[in-house]
Amino acid sequence: MFIIASIFRTIEGAAADLTGYRRTQFRQLVPMAERIPDTEGMSFPDNKPDFVLAEVPPTSGPLTLALDAGSDGVKWRQICGFIEVKPSVNEGPNLGARSTAVRHIVSQGADSARLIMAARPFQLYVLCIFIYGHKFSLGWYDRRGVIISDDYDIVDNLGVLVNVVLQLTTHMTAYQLGHDRSARLLEGHSYYQVEYPSFLVSMGADGDTYRWQTQGPPIWSSLSLLGRGTATWRAVSVGMKKAPVVVLKTLWRSQTQRSESNVYWRIKSPLPGVAELSLGDDVRIPVAMETHAPVSVGILRSLILDDDIGVPDDPILHRLALKTGGRPFLGCAEGWEGFVADLELASVAQPETETIVTLHPLPPSAGQLNTRGVFREDTVASSLKAPGVEITGTALFMAKELLDVMVISDKSRKVRPAQIERGVHHDLESFILVLFYAVMRRGLNRQLWAEKNQANQLRIEELYQ
Question: How far apart are CA 113 and CA 119, in angstroms?
Fold first, then answer.
């Protein structure tokens, strides 16, 4: 790893030194060795990439000051990309035609990508490099999955690798690397500063006058790569005197269901225990002169990669501002004060159509050697049945019956259909699990009880940290 790290540092500094290029972007590929990035209290697993693309302070010279993962430390929120390294070509991410297996290096990359998105929730996709033996490829992770380039031979395509490293460290803007254009860092703030930075957030539409300034780290940030990727923040409206604190929420919504803001608007009068909506809409992105379109995974792929396989239910970025701030279960007052119901999964009426998901291998496109498989979704007449087994939130709080069905292997089929309907009792079980978790955490924090057996006490604290 030391040799590879030296090569990356040489590439980062040599080009600017030789050409006189005045760099405007300051990132560094940092070898992590056995060091785990700083989670800053977030409940992350002890995972790490081999190299991280870390945002670092600017310098006047062509080379940034060397960052040591051990002595200096690297925060997860500093990381906007990564590199995974394997010694053998056989450990690469690409498989033969029509294979539906997932290589270990790809699942490792998915773990790193989801933690990056959780630590910096305004990251819409994550770029990476896979190096395996004498070959390498490029990866793109987003809320719909992963796109992997063809294999490149390092010797025959050394110029490609050098150019990619230069682009990642010195040329590409934060937006090109996947940062949400409608959420920019506050003036003077950075991802590498000591305290969590603040952002100026909008809906992204042309002429949009609504602005919010976030306060502190996210209240909640999803650890899932696929799915809604929900994140919530404390924020205040910009331009208002004594503006009250609102909850700013961003998520990827399904096009086959009503948006969460639409559900809130359908509530004609305030309901006790339900948050009150201030504003909600899909986030927009400029796609042409004076033309803005809702941000979707497909739009991002087509604008940046010029490569997207359309699906009917392409996830759309949605944002809401809730007037009712409330407080977390762990710190709320006794009784129902501060309790706020979340309508993200609320269903107002049974839809007339439903979506069927199947796996389709794709033939190689022009210039591609590898074959990719994608999930395609078809809209059909609804059977009026309840939703099937799917991850709709944190697996820790899912009903046991659903989890049991999801892990049952069925080798006779590539994609096993749902064998059980998700009912109200499953959602109720999840709600009880959340309440139980909150009660246990609150009791531990307030030291309302203590195990006489020290080993048991440590196990409990580890479970609810």
Answer: 10
